[in-house]
Amino acid sequence: MKKRQLKIAVIGGGSSYTPELIDGLIRYHDMFPVADLYLVDIEAGAEKLKVVGDLAQRMIDASGKPIKLHLTLDRREAIRGADFVTTQIRVGMLDARSRDEKIPLAHHLIGQETTGAGGFAKALRTIPVILDICKDIEELAPDAFMINFTNPAGLVTEAVSKYSRVKSVGLCNLPISTKMQIAELYGVPQTEMYIEIVGINHLHWTTRVMIDGKEMTGDFLDKLSGAKGISMANIPDLEWDAEFIQSLGALPCAYHRYYYMKEEMLREIMEHYEATGKTRADEVKEVEAELFELYKQPALTSKPPQLEKRGGAYYSEAAVQLMKSIYNDTGDIQTVNVRNQGIIPCLPDNVAIEVNCVIKSDGPHALSLSHPLPPQIRGLLQVVKAYEELTVEAAVHGDYAAALQALTIHPLVGDEQTAKALLNDLLEQNSGFLPQFQVRSGQTL
Amino acid sequence: MKKRQLKIAVIGGGSSYTPELIDGLIRYHDMFPVADLYLVDIEAGAEKLKVVGDLAQRMIDASGKPIKLHLTLDRREAIRGADFVTTQIRVGMLDARSRDEKIPLAHHLIGQETTGAGGFAKALRTIPVILDICKDIEELAPDAFMINFTNPAGLVTEAVSKYSRVKSVGLCNLPISTKMQIAELYGVPQTEMYIEIVGINHLHWTTRVMIDGKEMTGDFLDKLSGAKGISMANIPDLEWDAEFIQSLGALPCAYHRYYYMKEEMLREIMEHYEATGKTRADEVKEVEAELFELYKQPALTSKPPQLEKRGGAYYSEAAVQLMKSIYNDTGDIQTVNVRNQGIIPCLPDNVAIEVNCVIKSDGPHALSLSHPLPPQIRGLLQVVKAYEELTVEAAVHGDYAAALQALTIHPLVGDEQTAKALLNDLLEQNSGFLPQFQVRSGQTL
Amino acid sequence: MKKRQLKIAVIGGGSSYTPELIDGLIRYHDMFPVADLYLVDIEAGAEKLKVVGDLAQRMIDASGKPIKLHLTLDRREAIRGADFVTTQIRVGMLDARSRDEKIPLAHHLIGQETTGAGGFAKALRTIPVILDICKDIEELAPDAFMINFTNPAGLVTEAVSKYSRVKSVGLCNLPISTKMQIAELYGVPQTEMYIEIVGINHLHWTTRVMIDGKEMTGDFLDKLSGAKGISMANIPDLEWDAEFIQSLGALPCAYHRYYYMKEEMLREIMEHYEATGKTRADEVKEVEAELFELYKQPALTSKPPQLEKRGGAYYSEAAVQLMKSIYNDTGDIQTVNVRNQGIIPCLPDNVAIEVNCVIKSDGPHALSLSHPLPPQIRGLLQVVKAYEELTVEAAVHGDYAAALQALTIHPLVGDEQTAKALLNDLLEQNSGFLPQFQVRSGQTL
Amino acid sequence: MKKRQLKIAVIGGGSSYTPELIDGLIRYHDMFPVADLYLVDIEAGAEKLKVVGDLAQRMIDASGKPIKLHLTLDRREAIRGADFVTTQIRVGMLDARSRDEKIPLAHHLIGQETTGAGGFAKALRTIPVILDICKDIEELAPDAFMINFTNPAGLVTEAVSKYSRVKSVGLCNLPISTKMQIAELYGVPQTEMYIEIVGINHLHWTTRVMIDGKEMTGDFLDKLSGAKGISMANIPDLEWDAEFIQSLGALPCAYHRYYYMKEEMLREIMEHYEATGKTRADEVKEVEAELFELYKQPALTSKPPQLEKRGGAYYSEAAVQLMKSIYNDTGDIQTVNVRNQGIIPCLPDNVAIEVNCVIKSDGPHALSLSHPLPPQIRGLLQVVKAYEELTVEAAVHGDYAAALQALTIHPLVGDEQTAKALLNDLLEQNSGFLPQFQVRSGQTL
């Protein structure tokens, strides 16, 4: 018999995304009967937690679902005995993200939340905190699944898989968005469509499309050519070149624009920054301020449509679908981040990958690929994964050498002199959040 | 839109198993709407085809399903434009099987239909005929799936995968039987159970059992110890030793008894043969004769219960479930024979394996293993697979050297002197069915 | 008994490098007794062949060695029955190289003979010609070894290995130069030193140094830090950063400067070009003109010291050492380009790699690596190798899609828009040398 | 500068083989200048140590070489600061070996010192003692090479590689014997011959023969057919079948007779035992008694020719050649036991294999194979290696389950019921030597 009194702990519960999640938990309550929902945050997030928590309570009340909501600053209390722990934290908050975006720009490099040097800095700040959470889970809820939504989700998942015993799955709303947009393109329900997604978080390719059981990959590539393709709210929306897509033989993900259209993306970001003095983080801050004003309105008892602008579309969909499928042992296919174990044979066994998995009660089981990866996908995937492996080591051990090599081989940096100056800037401006580099940085900076 | 006028060709349609299949096609007709069903056989099987075909027609009539039945000796007509081609052929018929069982016994070795020297001889006879069928499919029904039920199913699937372009899946009723018996053991419906099966046809292990989403593998091994475990109608039913099962860490399949209990199995077979003068094939002949008498009775309009004794339990279940899931793009998990492609990393990529697969409209997608295989499973699996690789080469090319080495390294032979004498006997007694060895055998025998 | 009447065919015999080779063949004649030496060139190189051939004859005469020299424009005559065929061709001659260097510069990218877009264009021109030579060897000298000195040597070796049956080894003077410079650094003879070189042509790392049997890798990295390291005549000589070398844990090769110091290298090349209007090819043309004037002097009977400036230092050393070791079945260790076959497990089996090999009469046997490659080496190596795989396909099949993807993922390009414009320029300006792209380019350009 | 004061520790110095080793150390003293030679043994071997030590001293005196001989029962004193530690121990002495040979016979299985159940029991006794020696080496001579001659040498090398940090090489006289016999067959000096040996200790194949730089493998297989092939003093000398050798495509090693001619070998051993009441160990005891009588003769100042009968031919050759090549950083090719690391891709990376290696000052560097292994070699190799992996675990951890599975999958056992009875016998009769099984065996036996 399945447990009917589920406990969920949401680490970073004061996030502006939380109403998304609450909405999903309410909508799917029949199939995923949460009894106790803990929203936990740190002291600095107490005020946001209060606002979000009050809205969450109003949403639950309006739904009539028997979900008991708990707001707390005591992480261990939240985790103790939980069935699922979700994380959506932002170490250093949006100010840190703003720096992540600006420091690379000062070196004439793309500054982005999860990709390149920005994502690198975020990983250094975030991974030690997540591993600390994992220690609590190992002690207080050893059977819990950790559903990690915290970015950079691939790097975080890999760190957890390498340095803890927690059962964890890394999750992103990009695959589910891709699916929805392709379904829309073909005018079919998702259930009549199957797509093969392969790669790593924020660097995956859609290598196959089947509609109603028919192979449509060639047709799909034709359709895509020249179109704007799949996009995300937070990524400038440049068109893909038809010939390029055909020669690639797959649909790149939205974040691929930072690689394949590096020059133009840099130019756009730079122009925008120079024109407005703002990066995406600065704009998100404004959106968030507005959202929190909305959240405070006592009449609001559902997630406001403005939340979509924030970039969190389908977030609850992805998270609740995953937990629901684990809970119900559903056996449906979702695209999540898991340990490789030979599924992508050109990558090491112990790294995190983002692929189609069957979701069972013991978590995701990856599906074998329909075709071997062609060299154009393989090469880019391998070099970015090597960057990720080095970044995980740097983040866990405060290893300056690994950090320097990580940035040096990253395709968006690719120069050791640039990498070194950039790294020193990142370490200095993040020094309050990088205790693991403290001792070393005294020596090396 | 899915095609509503499915055509199925059943090669070897005169088989005594056919009523099983008809039964399944009738039961699942709503979800797998067969319009045209061709039963095809060779001249020598014309009489059996008539008997079986008449019964099939009566079964269809009684069901009221709109299935149009065609009986034919023209294989190309049956295959042309088919959506699915199933094979259930027996080259040399039961007389050949009887020899397969007796020749090894004369060398003091286990003689069995699919395992060891018996299965080897069957592979030599069968693979060229199957590849010939594949040529017809490539020409006349290039989009058809071939569902291969012909034994030795793993060897046949591997040969088809290596030497033809036909989309084929190898199928066996052993995995589905194992699932049913474990479900019964736990008193749960199959839908609340998940087991992980890994290996090759007739040599797979059940390495994991989950009941209602809970890990029960340890409990399952405890339960098994001392019990008779999973059995098949055609395999002597010896008890597994408790300590052995615990040390193995998995449930062996029924055919493993020929390996792990080699001595006792040989003794039992030998004693039985000496006492009765009969091997299993001889008994099956009698069962078949009775079955055909039954089949002839005009009042019979359903498959008779006696068919189960024949060993075909769940045959229709396995075959129809697979075709139904492909047709409906179901995405459920079934255990079938597919090309390895890295799923079992200790075996070559291009060999056939038997593992859990998600069944989509384009066929099976193998699932990654939960755990790496332990050495005790790996070693036996590898040596038997090497035997299979050699056997495929021997069967396709009439390669005496490959044949000699295949038998020499087979764990049930394992001696080159024995292997050579045995091989020469097998080639001589099967000479009418082995044109590929003709030229050579003139020289080598 | 070893053959005492060796025949060598030198394809591209009119090269200014040839006196180097003649010098080596004379010096080592006792151990590598060449009887017939064919210098062969194309019609357009007839004059240079005459000049070089005359010098070669004077060198041989002065040496008193019984080498019979043959000058010919008939390639098949030269190859027929040869024991070794060396290639040192330059399709399109130095004018093409000059374009290879200038076209990328026009796109603000590094233009270099073998690395990046320049090497890519050279590969497209060269590979079909080399494969044509291979057809002659397959027919006229099937037992011959082809010693390929033609750049880009790694790409050419891979193409030969994938698309011909000729026994070939790719050779470069960079490993032997590295060895000599490290031996000098330590003041020991090469025989008391062992270094481990691993990677691909013009992108290898020295990962280990042993002096007199002692592990000195750490000491070596210390020594290197801040020093200019190993250099080549044709590569700007920038210092490596101490911390970078330590974090890399290996000595990069000279060509690594184009990757690790991309920005500074581009700046230097650009400044030099803007100041002088010349690239390296233009300067080499001048050096060559001077060399050929020297070569014409009847009094000259040895290779002139000016040849070193040309960049060919140790060329004869590398080539003659290799042929001598094959001929004598020496079993010494040399660093050459061979098929991978698992030696570098993170690369495909069928690609060319540059590693330490034991040289026996049947050619090179690669040595296993002392340590797995760290991610910083692995990632860069993998992406450049993927570029090479695509480039080989593009060169052999005139495949525009492969060409576009090759340039897109190359770390010195890395942007699809840039790659496309660059590719179209390269194809257009090389159209006379790329018959394989003819048909397509009509459509795509 | 190389060290000129080498210290060697010989663990098991009282062995009858020691005069072989002394002979080698004297002969090669110029190139391998041993200054201090420690023969160490346990209390029970004190008397043999005295006899052998006295002979060794007389041999050294007669040679005039400046080798200082030390006899001791203090292992730590012998190991402290040693440059090389060789092991040639026999836990339980010849009585234990006699049991190893007889217990399997009682179960109608081959009983042999290193192969099958006998070698298994020897591994259980020996591995813990060797790992104990390794702890001393790690502490007292961390830079020393351990040259392991103790059987089963492959299993012991694998255990050391997996469970200690000692630099070790496993050594056997079988490869060097094979080389000598093939050289004799062709009437050439070994220096003009190259053979490729691949596999694991006592289960390797000679897959390639080159004479004077020419491929002679086909010719070699022809020559072998019908001949007695390569033999060892201690293995019954049955002829290989011509057709079998051709189909195998390689020369099996002498120990392969236990596999490929299992039945005949068992019959021969059994007949011999029944006729004489003796196994090989019993005969060796007699040979040893005679040898020790010889050793005692004061006039004897060299190794007596009778020693060859003992089976130790070329032992000193193999051991001293290896140490000499390490000491002199020779770079010659020898066949030794090392960690796999991808050289045999069908085996795990961390297992011991026996292959051609270049011997440098840092030890052996394995050479890549000329050709992938064919299935007939691969399958047998894999199953025996899986047995070895399980046996190492059983020996190190006293793991009954691993022991039971090891015997079950061994091709010379291959039946779980037989394996269990046999294992219980082996554990009981060796109980004094298997402290690691003590606790368990109380429960399980």
Distance between the termini of chain A: 58 Å
Largest sheet of chain A, in brief, is: 7 strands, antiparallel
User: In oligomeric terms, what are we looking at?
Assistant: homotetramer
Shape of chain A: globular
Look at the structure and give the mean pLDDT of chain A: 93
Radius of gyration of chain A: 21 Å
Greatest contact pair? A-C, 44 and 44 residues
Binding site for substrate (chains A, B, C, D): 97, 151
Domain Glycosyl hydrolase family 4 C-terminal (chains A, B, C, D): 198-413
InterPro entries (chains A, B, C, D): GlycHydrolase_4_CS (IPR019802), Glyco_hydro_4 (IPR001088), Glyco_hydro_4_C (IPR022616), Lactate_DH/Glyco_Ohase_4_C (IPR015955), NAD(P)-bd_dom_sf (IPR036291)
Site (Increases basicity of active site Tyr) (chains A, B, C, D): 113
Task: Characterise the protein shown here.
4 copies of one chain form a homotetramer. With 445 residues, chain A is of the alpha/beta class. Chain A has helices at 18-27, 46-63, 75-79, 93-106, 116-140, 153-163, 174-186, 217-224, 242-248, 257-260, 262-276, 280-296, 315-328, 375-397, 400-409, 416-429, 438-444; strands at residues 6-11, 34-40, 68-72, 84-87, 145-148, 167-170, 193-200, 203-211, 214-215, 251-252, 332-339, 352-360, 363-366. In chain A, helix 14 (375-397) runs antiparallel to helix 15 (400-409). Chains in contact: A-B, A-C, B-D, C-D. The A-C interface holds A 241, 243-244, 246-249, 259-264, 346, 374-376, 378-380, 382-387, 389-390, 400-402, 404-406, 408-409, 411, 414-418, 420, 444 and C 241, 243-244, 246-249, 259-264, 346, 374-376, 378-380, 382-387, 389-390, 400-402, 404-406, 408-409, 411, 414-418, 420, 444.
